[in-house]
Amino acid sequence: MNARALLARIRQTLDSSLARLNPRERRLVSVLGAVALVGGVYIMIVEPYQESRHRAHRRIETLSRDLGAMESLAAKIRTLEATSAKVESNEATAAGFSLFSFVDKATQAAISRDAVASMNPAKRPVRGGLEESSVELRLTAVGLPEIVALLEQIEATTEPVYVKRVELKRRYDDRARFDATIVTAALTRT
């Protein structure tokens, strides 16, 4: 049996069933059929379309937020690349530069000699033929203004020096003073 014959038979059955009903019942069945048709169209076509639009809007919002984060990361990457280019362009300056001497002079200018517990230099190779020189400076019983002055001295240089770590511990005997560990570093070409 083909599809046309099946549809014709279903139509004939519906027509004969509707013909047996009185006019009032036919109207009621027609109204219910129309309501069922509208409900089916809504459930099968309109609702999935609206849901897909809603999902698309949520996805656009998510991607917009991700784009903002990506743009800020791109800006950071550009800054780091510029810093890397600055390190490479400062090779001649960095070649005669001693990080230990620089930190020692900055410390003498900002902090009393008695507060310096130790200064430990270290070197380690990093990628791209660069070497990281670092100086770990341990200070005891220093005030916060002195630490800030030292950090300003280090950051104000034109040399490729950066503060890698600052660790402060409040002293138990004098709450206004700190024991501090400051690690500074500089990249040089090997």
Structural write-up:
With 190 residues, the protein is an alpha+beta fold. It has helices at 3-20, 23-89, 91-95, 99-110, 144-155; strands spanning 116-126, 130-143, 161-170, 177-189. It folds into 2 domains: 1-89; 92-189, Ribosomal protein S6/Translation elongation factor EF1B (Alpha-Beta Plaits, 2-Layer Sandwich), CATH 3.30.70.60. A 4-stranded antiparallel beta sheet has the order 1-2-4-3. It is rod-shaped and about 110 Å long.
What is this entry, summarized?
The protein is an alpha+beta fold.
Return the structural class.
alpha+beta
Radius of gyration: 39 Å
SSE string, helix = H, strand = E? HHHHEEHEE
CATH fold field value of the largest domain: Alpha-Beta Plaits
Q: What is the overall shape?
A: rod-shaped
Q: What's the count of strands?
A: 4
- Give start-end ranges of low-pLDDT stretches: none
* Estimated share of beta-strand residues: 25-35%
* CATH hierarchy: architecture of the largest domain: 2-Layer Sandwich
Mean pLDDT: 85
> In DSSP terms, counting alpha (H) and pi (I) runs of 4 or more, how many helices?
5
Q: Biggest sheet, strands in spatial order?
A: 1-2-4-3
CATH superfamily of the largest domain: Ribosomal protein S6/Translation elongation factor EF1B
End-to-end separation in angstroms reads 87 Å
Number of domains: 2
Features:
alpha+beta, 2 domains, Alpha-Beta Plaits, 4-stranded antiparallel sheet, 5 helices
Outline the fold blueprint.
Blueprint: H1 3-20, H2 23-89, H3 91-95, H4 99-110, E1 116-126, E2 130-143, H5 144-155, E3 161-170, E4 177-189
Antiparallel strand pairs: 1-2, 2-4, 3-4
